């Protein structure tokens, strides 16, 4: 989109800004009466006194305007005389256009016909000198054109002087201010592209859920958004914008050196130059970059607007209170309710950050490695709190530890110096700022089948009690859909919003938000409690962008709780070294130990399929499991192995219902249902069923357990499918492989150590 | 001589460096890594490459459909000679085009351009057999409305036309305008489309004058000589999807009218190529 660039002049200096609704800026900065009115409505004061304003006469692409506003010499030292301002402005604009134009002209020579090429070839020998002359002429023309471009608009730039009394429309100002406050309240904690913000505002305006919201026109929403930005309630910026120059490098600009090439960064997903693609853009009329990384969430462009709902307690809470006073008619709209929830959340933050929870015992050590006895005592202390959730002792202890960490305002002791160093280092240009070092994170490492979801209920409850907003994010959409009814049942009086691609609740906000990790790109500093479930699962694992999104959604003073049965090595290391507060839940909810895998030595599946018979050792074990009436998971590595293996097994066990499934199977969910219902007894599958599936009385066979696709985490997860029910806690697990590989050893070691810890802590049921 | 040596040097350096480069490439569509490298459509993995529903045998000589065609019989007078499409419009192509047009994944441009290029070369081959002198004079594209252009940031037909022009050394002109902003074609029935697309396009006369100037090298007097020889001026009209043919027909009519309006009485032939035939 295109915006208006202007420079404010005052006695103290100057300041370049841009606007999507310049008439609002003009009134705000130059008409004191208007500003007083607006600020009284929004309960906010600014200290900038401007005397006049230099408006650039043409609309500029957003990217250029943002870059110029960013590069404008510092506020205090900025030029204050009109002549220098014009000079600097002209130079910056022509620089910015020049950079874009250079890229474009490289793209321009589109085509030349065959005839033209022939003609050129003929000419080439004879008139070399002519061509040189021609080129010089063209360069001259270009230079002249550029000079024109930079001279003319600067000369035409209009200087508007301020006036204290202009008889501005007072009622209009008040209404606009109220609209701005309302928009800001609705957009709090969000990071939205222009079209998304319009959709959200339209959805809020539509009365009732039935009203299919008409997309509000941008021109109607722009003044309110611009005013909200001027009042500091929102931040408007380019969706793809240059990285701010680190202070260390600013001296180069001061010395009038060539400005360094701007490195672009997607402000929504945080990806850098590598994921930018520059294309000629019809909207801004130049080469304009867009971010390829987060394309699935709508296109984030250099000339596209990103609206960030910054959450500054002073502004929004007061602001909305006044907006409510002004527009009582709006109280029936659903938007109003959400906004009110936001305000109460605002009040909650301070309580959250300042006062430690009364439930938390005083003797809490921030050191993350805690003895299990310690945890048991904490659990006893807060028993009554957990009674409602019917947690097992291990669950209660872990929940108590997490709760205490959340309530305690401090970060872990081990991390502080390290973090300070990182904090310093982040200001250097070469250190990536993608991770927020100051963030508080807590790892809840619970074995498979421990009842992780129940453990987070008390955390959510505590967060809601303080008026905070909670988020539960997980990489998988089906997990979100499965969690939804459980959360609604557990918190019947709270408003729950479930977000995933194509969710009908897309633009709502509530006390509890359930979302896939991709949806987190649309939030910024929004939640006081962030729970990330299955953080080691695809696609969250190894995806920098999703990590960036998850790091950004947690509000200041909030806390992130990471849930996993198999945390990645990096987190385990951090936990071991004391950089990451954590608690381990070594036992399942039914308080029986995890089944330890047994080994069966058989050849690789690839070879098995060439042999006449399946090996007797495998068939014996399968038969024993079938005889005891168990449901059998049989994991293989390759999709192409599923069908042949199913054939072989059907041949070996003609009376047993055997099916196979994989990610390419359309019948997948049906087959899993039938498997749960015991009409299928043996299911051959790939890693798609490695997590999230609970089948009572099941045994697990992992073929090719030495293959490279099965790492320690996935072996532990697959082994975790066995023995999950109270009725049959001792399921059987077999690693079938030719080699006893390192990851098998590590998986067995991990399972054994969890069992040992459970026994030592006295969590296991005595036989 | 010296030039050829240096060319040889750079070529061999390029090949040598290629040895160091990883041989895997990430598929543009599905993001999977593929080890096999092939010369045709190297940006795709073998699976995606095989999923392209090429139109290899043309059944309807007018619209280039691979099966029997009812539409072309129903049309009274087509303003274009024929249409050729590269692929059938099935789910795969629908997804690819949606990724490109609606999601704005402009990285697909070379891929789609390459697909369209096969339609162009097919057309060229077919008509060269009939007449040795066959060649296209200018490439034009189907325009979109300003609103749509601002919403998307680009006109897919214009980009594809530019790609064709660049790859085959033709001249590309922007001579058509959309008279009004109509609903998306994909939401309409056949009857509505036929009714709506009449008078939807107008040509830009100054742009046509400029184009003629460029085509005939500023020498308008040379024109009659060429026209008297019985040769006609041939346009290549580019669009992304051909459904009923009403859009390209209206555009072709607009081109004819525009050229006549601008004061050129000449024989015009308009051929269209589209990426997908639905």
Automatic annotation (TrEMBL), chain A:
Top-level enzyme category: hydrolase
Coiled coil: none
Pfam families recorded: Helicase_C (PF00271), ResIII (PF04851)
Domain of life: Bacteria
Residue ranges of every copy of the Helicase ATP-binding domain listed in the record: 433-585
Keyword Hydrolase tagged: yes
Biased composition (Basic and acidic residues): 118-149
Residues in Helicase C-terminal domain copies: 618-767
Record SMART domains: DEXDc, HELICc
Alphabetical keyword list: ATP-binding, DNA-binding, Hydrolase, Nucleotide-binding
Record EC number: 3.6.4.-
Annotated region (Disordered), positions in chain: 100-163
An example Gene Ontology molecular-function term: hydrolase activity
PANTHER family xrefs: COMF OPERON PROTEIN 1, PRIMOSOMAL PROTEIN N
Protein name as it appears in the record: Transcription-repair-coupling factor
From TrEMBL, chain B:
InterPro entries hit by this protein: ComF/GntX_DNA_util-trans, PRTase-like, PRTase_dom
Entry similarity comment: Belongs to the ComF/GntX family.
Highest taxon in the source lineage: Bacteria
Species the sequence originates in: Paenibacillus plantiphilus
Protein name: ComF family protein
